[in-house]
Amino acid sequence: MSTTITRKQLEEARLHRRTFAIISHPDAGKTTLTEKLLLFGGSIEVAGAVRGRKSQRSARSDWMELEKQRGISVSSTVLTFAFEDTHINLLDTPGHHDFSEDTYRTLMAADCAVMVIDAAKGIESQTEKLFRVCAARGIPVITFVNKIDRPGPSSLEILGQIEKEFSIEAVPINWPVGNGPEFSGIVDIASNQMHLFSTDSSDFRAAAVQRSWPEVLESNDSLEPTKPSPHRNSLVQSLKSEVLLRAAEELELVKHAGQEYERERFLGGQQTLVFFGSALANFGMELFLRGFIDLCPPPSASPPPKPTEASEGARDLPQFSGFVFKIQANLDPMHRDRVAFIRVRTGRFERDMDVTIARSGNRVRLPRALKVFGRERLTMEEAFPGDIIGVVCPGELRLGDSVYEDTPVRYPGVPQFPPEVFASIDCPDTSRRKQFDRGLEQLVEEGAVQLFYGTGRQRDAILAAVGELQFDVVQFRLESEYKAPSRLHRLPYAHARWYHCNDRQVAMKSPYGAKLVNDSFGSPAILIQSDWDLKQLERNNPDFTFDAIHETR
Ligand code: G4P
């Protein structure tokens, strides 16, 4: 039943929400950090629950079986938790490069990205690509340098690496005192307080003992936060001379020679704010969480980006609108349904609400909106800007669709990212052809893989993916969910470019072996076999524009 809400209440709900995607190279500690954040927020009560849940879910859902077999995360999940009066939506993403398309799409639904870096390893190739996507999409990035309890490059070197590799200013919000076995705590730069590291505490939510950083530097007493032992005391004394002085020097350098935090530059993607900590040792979590809530922008209050003419004269209170950034079929094999994930952009969503799909103009009821926690589902009564709702949609909603209550609006589509591997696919069992076609169509609609069609008479279908494992998932799911066997034949293409030319009379000079195709939305594209061919294509066709990322969805 519909209840009224005031503008003030809606505004309060918006300002107390933070929606972010957590991204990293595999093994940097994303799962561990997520788990510690959920523990802090009380969404789970025991460490290991995220992994525990993962394996329970794998047992329930058969395509998740693939995740279990490979030890990888194939698709993004949504997790929510509260910290004090802030409602946090955490969009978890698969770390593996081959599933980065899913990560890229998830970023479209986030107001901020948290990039987890392994302090011992520094910047890794996957991190670099993700940073570039965030920069290209104008998504502010907060960096969490994890595993500071492990020996590795100095914190100054890590900052330098971030700045050099990503051409971005790295602004530390806190600073570690030592690393590896010498790690002694973290200094919060704004308050000049040192949070002392202790391995004693069994209470994961216990606040770290704090000391004024200048006092720590001046005094000769122990750094031990609790029960100092004579052995520890002497260790601390010897550390003080080296580790503390080094940290003090580094901090001076950072404060005087480093970049200053400028909100506009951070929001514009020219600055990343850097936190240090150890998710495994549960240290730096609270500093990070509080800092994150303070710095991460709340969902935008700005009017919809492309209001249509009918928006004129809209009612005073912002109406519900959102967009579909993810479709996931068969999350639960018991139901075999299709869930569209909608990011709420404006207004309040209420259960049983009627909405219009901007693409088709169809009016549909959203009867069962779900709050999806990982793979678990709870019915959702209401949602606010920044929230993610899961809607069971038998085919009505598509990836990139905008939906609205009354005030027409169309958000930018969810982009298709450049595929890097290509294959043809067929079904060797003719009696399962129908199921094969339906399965493939649904997987393409979900964005599990891209599909191109040859422009010739045969319209041969070509699967395209960012990584090989995406093909494995498609074949696995065709077999397990649609009982349709498939055969894959790799094709020699290396790149796809969507093209456009204003002058229809100009013929394209395509390199040898290239293939003209249309994507599943009918947009023309060309498949090319090598980097060299790509350069030739661009050089020989100055009247054409070639796009690596295409926004049709
Ligand atoms: P991911 O989701 O980014 O892939 O990484 P995940 O959290 O699974 O962490 C990868 C490994 O790094 C795990 O060890 C985890 O325990 C360890 N780790 C995470 N955070 C820290 C940290 O702050 N300090 C240290 N020293 N290690 C950390 P594993 O041996 O691969 O798995 P497990 O046996 O611990 O589960």
From TrEMBL:
Annotated family: Belongs to the TRAFAC class translation factor GTPase superfamily. Classic translation factor GTPase family. PrfC subfamily.
The keyword Ligase belongs to this UniProt entry's keyword annotation: no
One Pfam family per UniProt: EF-G_D2
Protein localization: Cytoplasm
One GO term describing the cellular component: cytosol
Protein name: Peptide chain release factor 3
Organism (species): Neorhodopirellula pilleata
Keywords, alphabetical: Cytoplasm, GTP-binding, Nucleotide-binding, Protein biosynthesis
Domain of life: Bacteria
Tr-type G domain sequence ranges: 15-300
A molecular-function term among this protein's GO annotations: GTP binding
Keyword GTP-binding: yes
Biological-process GO terms, alphabetical: regulation of translational termination
Function: Increases the formation of ribosomal termination complexes and stimulates activities of RF-1 and RF-2. It binds guanine nucleotides and has strong preference for UGA stop codons. It may interact directly with the ribosome. The stimulation of RF-1 and RF-2 is significantly reduced by GTP and GDP, but not by GMP.
PROSITE patterns named among the record's database cross-references: G_TR_1, G_TR_2
Residue numbers binding GTP: S24, H25, P26, D27, A28, G29, K30, T31, D92, T93, P94, G95, H96
